[in-house]
Each structure stands twice: as structure tokens, then as C-alpha cells.
């Protein structure tokens, strides 16, 4: 299976949807910030590995604690994915912190501040 094939895109979307549901509703770890979201998911063509890009809105301490909580819940998340998605192999997940949402919010604030100063 090629990296950008239709099948791989569908698998990425399905894993993305289920991973977001699991993180939002199933993990009860108090270290996990309520403002944690899944930005994107890339499943390898051999279905053995998965990169999950995670964004946490908050300070650096919230990001670190959320990352630690996700790493400790990795086995539980993989087990839940195996139950919800029928794949030949359930991919092992590698979480990667993504600051794109926080960057976008900060840029929007800066643009609003510049517009207020000019008005």
C-alpha cells in the first residue's frame, strides 16, 4: 500500500477519529489536559506504526504532563483501537507534540492587537 493511496487515507481518518474519541472520553488520567486535541494521524503503509500529532492548549507544564499521560496510556489506547478498528495489525502509536493550534491563536491575538492600534 502506497503512502497516499485512498486506502491509507481512509485508515488515517478512521484512526484519527477513534483516537480523538478515546483521548476525549476514555482516558481518566488527571495529568491529561482537557484542552488536548489530535491534530493529525499518519499510519505507516505496513500498518505497524502510527504518528499521532497532539496539540495541547496551555502552558508548557500542561503540555509536558499531557504528553506523559498519553505515553503512560499508550497500551490502553492501542487496546481500544484494536477493539474499535478492524485492521490486520494494530499500529503502535508515537505521540508528537504539535504547537500549530497555539501558534495560530497567538498570531490571531497579535493581528487583533495591531488592528486595534490602527483603528
CATH topology: GMP Synthetase, Chain A, domain 3
User: What overall geometry do the principal axes of the alpha carbons give?
Assistant: globular
Radius of gyration: 17 Å
Tally of helical runs: 4
| CATH class category label | Alpha Beta
Question: Residue share in helices?
Answer: 40-55%
| Average pLDDT | 89
The strands making up the biggest β-sheet line up spatially as 1-2-3
What is the compact description of this entry?
The chain has 119 residues and is an alpha+beta fold. Helices cover 53% and strands 18% of the residues. It has one domain: K homology (KH) domain (GMP Synthetase, Chain A, domain 3, 2-Layer Sandwich), CATH 3.30.300.
Topology:
Layout: H1 6-25, E1 36-43, E2 49-56, H2 60-72, H3 74-84, E3 92-97, H4 100-118
Parallel strand pairs: 2-3
Antiparallel strand pairs: 1-2
Helix pairs in contact: 1-3
